[in-house]
Design brief:
The longest helix has 24 residues. The chain is of the alpha/beta class and 238 residues long. It folds into two domains: 182 residues, Rossmann fold (3-Layer(aba) Sandwich); 39 residues. Strand 1, helix 2 and strand 2 form a beta-alpha-beta unit. The chain contains eight helices and eight strands. The radius of gyration is 18 Å and the shape is globular. Helix 7 runs antiparallel to helix 8. The chain binds S-adenosylmethionine (SAM). The site of S-adenosylmethionine has 20 residues, from strand 2.
């Protein structure tokens, strides 16, 4: 999968084209995963970048992708939790956090903490690009029990924007994932696991993972598809 978020390459490029990043800019990506989003930003703009993730395997993948596609870019990939990264205030022109606000805190602390911390890390006039879940409609209790998230973790789309604006950010642009993007995201996970399982039919951990993934898929089909949304929000720090 290109991204571990329900976004297509086309949607990512559409948003990257609107970021207003200059070649002199310094871009942070928190929870960068395998680095695809930040590599695309750097390919398109020539900016400098720092990608952070706690998973060493993903940071290794990001390094490999970057060395193949933008070998001369000033890009750093760091295996670190964001709250331990000791980054300077106002040090970035753009901070990205795509599907990773939980890096800043669990449950209902995630988005508020992400807004606060990313605002601190970006210079005045700089920008934040946040990919965040939202409720398309109030979630069914059974769905909440299945995903293990309390209802208060997420807001609706409008409230994701107003929450940030009430904390001094200016919303510049917002776009949401469509059903194709969601279906591709959810079914790709399932497909990857199915393939791994076929190659390793006797691995008990994989069997258990696949069982959990099928339960998740059923919940997605029954409730998630009409209930859970994903928005990309571009904000400016005043
Ligand atoms: C849903 S994935 C999104 C990855 C990537 N942004 C993308 O869209 O493809 C969330 C990522 O956040 C990372 N993460 C979780 N907690 C973190 C933390 N405390 N600090 C940095 N990264 C973290 C995970 O390892 C994972 O790669």
């Amino acid at each position: 999968m290109l991204f571990n978020s329900p976004i297509s390459a086309q949607k990512a490029d559409q948003v990257i084209g609107l970021l207003g990043v200059l070649p002199t800019a310094c871009v942070l990506d928190v929870g960068c995963g395998s680095g695809e989003f930040l590599v695309r930003v750097v390919e398109k703009t020539g900016a400098k970048g720092l990608g952070l993730d706690i998973q060493p395997g993903l940071i290794a993948m990001a390094r490999k992708t970057a060395s193949g596609r933008v070998p001369h870019a000033a890009l750093e990939w760091r295996e670190s939790a964001i709250m331990e990264a000791m980054l300077e205030d106002n040090g970035f022109d753009l901070a990205i956090c795509m599907g990773s606000t939980h890096a800043f805190g669990a449950g209902d602390a995630a988005y508020p903490n992400a807004i606060r911390e990313l605002s601190r890390l970006v210079r005045p006039g700089g920008r934040l690009l946040i990919g965040e879940t939202y409720w398309k409609q109030p979630p069914a209790q059974e769905y909440l029990e299945m995903i293990g998230d309390p209802a208060g973790t997420y807001r609706d789309h409008a409230a994701n924007i107003s929450f940030a604006e009430e904390r001094g950010l200016r919303a510049l642009y917002a776009v949401t994932s469509n059903e194709d993007e969601w279906d591709h995201f959810e079914w790709s996970h399932q497909l990857e696991l199915d393939q791994k399982r076929r190659q390793n039919p006797d691995d008990p951990a994989l069997t258990e993972k696949l069982k959990r993934s099928r339960a998740w898929r059923d919940g997605y089909l029954r409730w998630g598809r009409t209930t859970m949304g994903f928005g990309m929000y571009l904000f400016q720090k005043q």
